[in-house]
Specification:
Elements: H1 2-146
Length: about 150
């Protein structure tokens, strides 16, 4: 009877131990699975963060490049406009100078023509006066001789 009781006790203890071991194994497996899942989630989150950072950096770089290109284009356009304005101003100045020179030349030519005309008129007047004087002298001489 005692032996049977001991045997029954051993059997119960063995069963309890087996159950406890099985439960422990299950718990360990569950813990391991949870740890693995957590690690995977952390890795995924890190990867996503890295990807987001890289995308943001790429976008920022693209925006900076676009801004730089726009600034360069604006500067080039401004320089071209300034050059065109300078060229136009130079052309206008040259045209004004040419017009002034032409006007001066025309004035000089007109003055020279007027002087020449005056000289010619004076010479003609002098010649006419001389001729008249000669004619008068001749007639006075003839009239003197005849009397």
């Amino acid at each position: 009877m005692i032996s049977s009781s001991i045997s029954s006790n051993i059997s119960i203890i063995t069963t309890i131990i087996i159950i406890v071991v099985v439960i422990m194994i299950i718990i360990i497996i569950i813990i391991i699975i949870i740890i693995i899942i957590i690690i995977i989630i952390i890795i995924i989150i890190i990867i996503i963060i890295i990807i987001i950072i890289v995308i943001i950096v790429i976008i920022i770089i693209i925006i900076i490049i676009i801004i730089i290109i726009i600034i360069i284009i604006i500067i080039i356009i401004i320089i071209i406009i300034i050059i065109i304005i300078i060229i136009i101003i130079i052309i206008i100045i040259i045209i004004i100078i040419i017009i002034i020179i032409i006007i001066i030349i025309i004035i000089i030519i007109i003055i020279i023509i007027i002087i020449i005309i005056i000289i010619i008129i004076t010479i003609i007047i002098i010649i006419i006066v001389i001729i008249i004087i000669i004619i008068i002298m001749y007639y006075t001489y003839i009239s003197d001789v005849s009397t």
